[in-house]
Design goal:
Helices cover 70% and strands 0% of the residues. It is an all-alpha fold and 94 residues long. The protein is elongated. The mean pLDDT is 79.
């Protein structure tokens, strides 16, 4: 038991020191290098988003979503989509 808690304590101290040194390095860097890193990370995200295809729900998924939406609307007493306000004839206002 003592050995496992010692290992956990050493690991925790290691992770804290790594995080602390990372913050010190971040403070020492210039704004230009931080901006460049942000641009690189944004580019990586854009590339990854192009690689991942969106899954299209099939008819069973759509049926479940429709049933759950109808159930939720019946519980809250809502009518669903909002309707535009009615205008009096001849007022010209929508």
């Amino acid at each position: 038991m003592l050995l496992s808690s010692t290992v956990v304590l050493i690991r925790l101290l290691y992770l804290l020191m790594i995080r602390l040194f990372g913050w010190v390095v971040l403070l020492a860097r210039s704004d230009t290098s931080k901006d460049i890193e942000i641009l690189v990370l944004r580019h990586e995200i854009a590339v990854l988003r192009r690689q991942v295809s969106r899954s299209k729900p099939d008819w069973a998924d759509r049926a479940v979503i429709t049933a759950l939406a109808g159930y939720c609307l019946s519980i809250c007493g809502c009518t669903g989509l909002p309707h535009p306000p009615r205008c009096s004839p001849g007022t010209g206002a929508w």
